[in-house]
Amino acid sequence: MDMPQLTDRAALMRNRARAEPSALFLHEHAADELHERLIEVNRTFTSIAIVTGFPDFWRARYPEATIVSDEDALALTPHAHDLILHVMCLHWANDPVGQLVQTRHALKPDGLLLCTFLGGQTLHELRASLAEAEAVVAGGLSPRIAPMGEIRDLGALLQRAGFALPVADSTLLTVSYANAFHLMHDLRKMGENNALHQRIKHATRRNVLTEAACIYADNFRNDENRVDATFEVITLTGWAPADSQPQPLRPGSAKTRLADALNTSETPIKRSND
Prior knowledge:
Elements: H1 9-17, H2 25-41, E1 48-52, H3 55-61, E2 66-69, E3 81-87, H4 96-106, E4 107-118, H5 124-137, H6 151-160, E5 164-177, H7 180-190, H8 206-220, E6 227-239, H9 258-261
Parallel strand pairs: 1-2, 1-3, 3-4
Antiparallel strand pairs: 4-6, 5-6
Helix pairs in contact: 5-8
């Protein structure tokens, strides 16, 4: 059975081709965040791969790395890398778990994956404004912004993909714009405008966009008379399994009672039939 297509790959590539380097502040943020995390890991990595839709940006940051396009089938060699960075593209993947499984197979034992991408709180202001405007003006809704994962669900993706020691966390970035039109123009310059497979293929009616901009200003204006836009950047951290990693103890194998460790008394549970 064919995989459902979330993303129109041709449209996504066109959007990225129009992106301007000066607008890639989300990639700048991700690069700085990943750098800090790698410092904390305190390990020297000798075989790095980067999965990205913006090769020039990331090649400049990691000139020694192998750069891989974020196709559905990743051009990664099995068990070849001790570090893989999957950066700012999982939110466009047709099969996010499949992407993670492929990175795990490409890691050496005890290799590290750092995966950063946009999460479910991203552009919630714009989504709400467009939905209300379209309902008022056009009497219905159309797909405009890719569905993005919620942080409470994303840690499970790493476990499903077979990673050890999985961690998921997120950072909210608030960016202000003169109005909603400036935000939408910036999304185009970032290469993050609509590339959904089920999107409407004609230009959005001007009166829908005008109504959305008015709703946006009414609901999300800040103290500086500008409008706020939220970007949620999620980072997944996982390790390829290895015998050297900490292993959970078998149930019942503890040699010390919890009550002794806490210096307290144990209270037996009274069963209902006692």
